[in-house]
Amino acid sequence: MIRYQCTFCNYIYDPEIGDQENGIPPGTAFENLPDDWVCPLCLAGKSEFEETE
Predict the structure, then answer these.
(1) How far, rounded to the nearest angstrom, does the alpha carbon of residue 33 sit from its chain's CA centroid?
(2) CB atoms within 10 A of CB 41
(3) Would you tell me how many other CB atoms lie within 10 Å of the CB of residue 18?
(4) CA-only gyration radius of the chain, Å
(5) DSSP 8-state assignment for residue 48
(6) pTM exceeds 0.90 for this model
(7) Quick check: 53 and 3 in contact, CB under 8 A?
């Protein structure tokens, strides 16, 4: 799965891990995150994330 990086704080969203603290289970693709999901570190919106290796 492709990982996504926040352009503000460099947090990496890894679909294999999810975002358990915010109710996102492992295996959730970035495209399937709720529209109101935000970076757990800096609260940036999904539009501020870019694909990363």
Answers:
(1) 8
(2) 11
(3) 16
(4) 10
(5) G
(6) yes
(7) yes
